[in-house]
Design goal:
The protein is of the alpha/beta class and about 300 residues long. The chain has two domains: about 220 residues, P-loop containing nucleotide triphosphate hydrolases (Rossmann fold), CATH 3.40.50.300; about 70 residues, Alpha-Beta Plaits (2-Layer Sandwich). Helix content is about 35%, strand content about 25%. The chain contains eleven helices and 14 strands. It has a six-stranded mixed β-sheet with strand order 6-7-8-3-9-10, with helices on both faces. A four-stranded antiparallel β-sheet has the order 2-1-4-5, with helices on one face. A four-stranded antiparallel β-sheet has the order 12-13-11-14, with helices on both faces. A hairpin with a 2-residue loop joins strand 12 and strand 13. The chain is globular, with a radius of gyration of 23 Å.
């Protein structure tokens, strides 16, 4: 359904910034595919290229077999795009925005109402309210309704849950599961690793490069090191100490604790805990944990930075 081959994109004049660096990607029809990475990783640039809003500087990409440069008119008729920033008409009401987007695609709300019904029913009581006066969660639902009103074959969602409360995030992903059942191919980007687990496959992206593409469970299972969680009141002191500890392959903050990678022959966290306590952190606690997608991402990022520094 989507093919990306050696795509690169650059910004700037004298000081050129590489937004995408030789991206290769293939997404199957009916897939819920996640593009996972931090701000500035290149997610939005790739979305804009695939939705024909931007032209790649190198390489090529196709959507439904159509070239994103030569066949942009055909692509625009069959895709829905929900950008990261709310881009609907703030002065129009909910219903006016929806009617406007339906008219753009020569359709009506009634024709494809079954597709947006589970979403639109939640904002219908506020259909006469101006879009600019809606809450973040309601804006999100309206934007998704507008992107779906012409029944697209491919749906692009650029960080759709950023800035939205936890309940609305959960509801949104439940909606995506329903849309997938309708046969719609969905490409969604997110900085949230917990959302990655809900995708069929994900691509980890950073600094314009794809680090890994696989089902979420496969990425987590690919972790080969011993991973430990370290907790201490003086967490920054613990970080400094661990960076100099023999056998530590990597250490990074993870919420209110540290995650520590130990080399294969350093399997016992008991000695690590004792060493931290003898070093002045009497409350230090160490326990073995399983790796998640975020751990794999941080490990790959850490390895890449080491290679670049060398």
């Amino acid at each position: 359904m989507i093919t990306v081959s050696k795509v690169s994109k650059y910004y700037g004049g004298k000081e050129t910034v590489t937004a995408l660096d030789g991206i290769d990607l293939s997404i199957e029809a009916g897939e819920l595919f996640g593009l996972i990475g931090p701000d500035g990783a290149g997610k939005t640039t790739l979305f804009r290229i695939l939705t024909t809003l931007m032209v790649p500087d190198k390489g090529y990409a196709t959507v439904m077999g159509y070239d994103v440069v030569k066949d942009y008119n055909q692509i625009r008729q069959h895709v829905g795009y929900m950008p990261g920033r709310f881009s609907l008409y703030q002065d129009l009401s909910v219903i006016e925005n929806l009617e406007f987007y339906a008219t753009l695609f020569n359709t009506t709300i009634e024709k494809n109402y079954h597709l947006i019904k589970p979403i639109y029913e939640q904002i219908e009581p506020f259909k006469d309210r101006r879009a600019g006066a809606l809450s973040g969660g309601m804006k999100q639902k309206l934007a998704l309704s507008c992107a779906l009103i012409h029944k697209p074959k491919v749906l692009f969602l650029d960080e759709p849950t950023t800035g939205v409360d936890v309940v609305s995030r959960k509801e949104f992903w439940q909606m995506l599961s329903g849309l997938k059942d309708e046969g719609i191919t969905i490409l969604v980007s997110t900085p949230y690793m917990d959302e990655a687990a809900m995708c069929d496959r994900i691509a980890l992206i950073n600094e314009g490069k794809i680090l890994q593409v696989a089902p979420p469970h496969s990425i987590a299972a690919s972790y080969q090191l011993n991973l430990w969680e370290v907790r201490a009141e003086k967490i920054y002191t613990a970080l400094q100490l661990l960076e100099g500890y023999d056998g530590v392959k990597g250490v990074y903050p993870f919420g209110d604790c540290l995650h520590v990678e130990l080399e294969a022959d350093k399997k016992d966290g008991f000695y690590l805990e004792m060493w931290l306590q003898r070093s002045g952190l009497a409350d230090a606690r160490v326990k073995a944990i399983g790796a998640g997608i975020e751990d794999v991402f941080l490990i790959q990022l850490h390895s890449t930075q080491k290679i670049q520094s060398v």
